[in-house]
Amino acid sequence: MTYTVHLPLNLGLAGSNGNVDLASRTILATMDLYPRGFITHVEDGPWTGRYEMLHVENSLKSLTAIKRAVGDLADICVENLEGEPPRMINLMMEGVPVSCCVDIGHLWKQGLDAIAHLKSCLPRTRVVHIHGVSTRDHQSLSVMSASEQDPVFEFLKKQFNGVLTIEVFNEADLLESLPMLK
User: For residue 178, is it within any domain?
Assistant: First the structure.
């Protein structure tokens, strides 16, 4: 069994007052699990106009500050969110040596090409989150069509050797999702 640790939500690492202390304490408290990565959101939206570069700069500062706790910034996996342009992850990866957590469900929710995003981040992707999206986020994969899922699963099967997480929040959605992996 392996672990990933999802850092607390709403750390606001892209803001001027990101909660680096809480992120660092969470990392230090879970180090004995030897996680494959620490998943984090950097949100402090909106990611539009003149705020984009300010958010990227703040994110880079926050992620660099977290390095004291984690040691190797490659252990930090920045997750794409549905409210931010995917290019923000690429800008952060250019600025600091973090890894990536590609959330396929968030890309589907935005109507974006998941495989194109995976290809652009693949060398630094440690973790992939997958879940269905329909009336709500993080649903069973059974709400997605085979034509949406199959190309992604084929790509992952051939190209990805990291952690695949079915990111649902109840047992029923998990049990409904497992057959989709076959």
Answer: no
Does any domain span residue 136? no
Q: Is residue 179 part of a domain?
A: no
The structure's pTM equals 0.93
CB within 8 A of 31, min separation 6: which ones?
none
CA distances for 72 relative to 1, 28, 116, 164, angstroms: 22, 13, 27, 21
Q: Is residue 87 part of a domain?
A: yes
Domain of 54, CATH number, reads 3.20.20.150
The pLDDT tens digits of the residues spanning 126-179 come to: 999 999 999 889 999 999 999 999 999 999 999 999 999 999 999 999 999 999
Measure the CA–CA gap between 62 and 42, rounded to whole angstroms.
9
- Bridge partners of residue 6, in order along the sequence: 39
